[in-house]
Amino acid sequence: MINLLALAIPTVKLSVEGAQNAPQFSIFLQILLLLTILSIAPALLLMLTSFTRLIVVFSILRHALGLQQTPPNQVLISLALFLTFFIMAPIFKDIYQQALKPYMNKEISEEELFKRASAPLKEFMFKNTREKDLALFINLRGEERPKNKEEVSLLTLIPAFMISELKTAFQIGFLLYIPFLVIDIVVSSVLISMGVLMLPPMMISLPLKLLLFVLVDGWNLLVMSLVKSFY
Asked: In this structure, how many other beta carbons lie within 10 angstroms of the beta carbon of residue 45?
C-alpha cells in the first residue's frame, strides 16, 4: 500500500518584492502591459477587425430564415472568427514583419512598436469607415479637422469604424431579408385565400426558404460577398 504521507506535496509561493534597479522595474512594467493586452484581446478582436460585420450579418440571416437556434451560436461565432483571420491575414502579416519582428530582434523601442503595429490596422479601418461617422467623433471630442490620416487618433477612429461596420452589416442584412420576406408574404396570402387559417404560415414558408437558400448556394454567395466587401 502506498504511503500517502511519504509523497512530497509541492507548494506555490507568490511574493512581491521591490525592484532593485531600473531595468528590473522596466521588466515589471512590460509584464503588466502584456497581461493588460491579453485581458482586452477579445475586445480588440471585436473593435479592430472584420468580426463585427460578419457576426451581425450571420445573426440577421438566421432570423431571416426563421431559424431560432440553427446554426448554433458556437458555429456562427467560429465561422466569423475563421473568416476574420482569413480577411485580416495580410494585415497581421504586415504587423509581424514591420513591428513584432524588429521588436523581438531589439531593433526598435516599445513606442515605435506601437506606432508601426497600429499603421496597418488604421489603414484597414480607414477603408471601411464612413467620413460622416469619423467627423461625428472628431466633433464630439472637440478636435480640429485633421489634415491627413496620421493625425487621426485611434480613440477617434475605433468607435467611428465600429458604427460604420454596424451600418454596413444592417444594410447587408436588409438585402438578405427581402427574398425571405417575399416568401412569407406569398405563403400567408395563399393560405388566407384558401381559407386555411389554422395552419401557421411558418410551417410552409420555412422549408421553402431553406430550399431557396440551398438552391442558390447561399453560404457561398454570402461569404464571397462579405469577404469582397472589405477590399
From this structure: 16
176: Cα within 13 Å, side-chain hemisphere: 25
Cβ contacts of 92 within 8 Å, gap of 6 or more: 85
- Grid coordinates in use for 116? 508601426
Q: Please list, in sequence order, all residues whose beta carbon lies within 8 angstroms of the beta carbon of residue 212, skipping any fewer than 6 positions away.
A: 179, 180, 183, 218
Portion of the chain with pLDDT greater than 90, in percent: 6
Q: What is the pTM of this model?
A: 0.76
What is the average per-residue pLDDT within 54-71?
A: 86
Q: Per-residue pLDDT tens for 67-107?
A: 877 888 888 889 998 998 898 888 888 888 888 788 777 77
Residue with cell 525592484: 19
Nearest-angstrom CA–CA distance, 51 and 45? 7
Grid cell for residue 142: 472637440
Q: Write the CB contacts of 145 (distance below 8 Å, at least 6 apart in sequence).
A: 138
Concatenate the DSSP letters of all residues of 145-172 into one string: PPSSGGGS-HHHHHHHHHHHHHHHHHHH
3-state class of 13 per DSSP? coil
DSSP state of 130: -
CA–CA distance, 91 with 182 (Å, rounded to integer): 40
**Contact, 195 vs 85, CB < 8 A?**
no
Q: CA geometry: angle at 80 spanning 75 and 83, to 5°?
A: 125
- Quick check: helix, strand or coil at residue 229? coil
The set of cell numbers assigned to 80 is 466569423
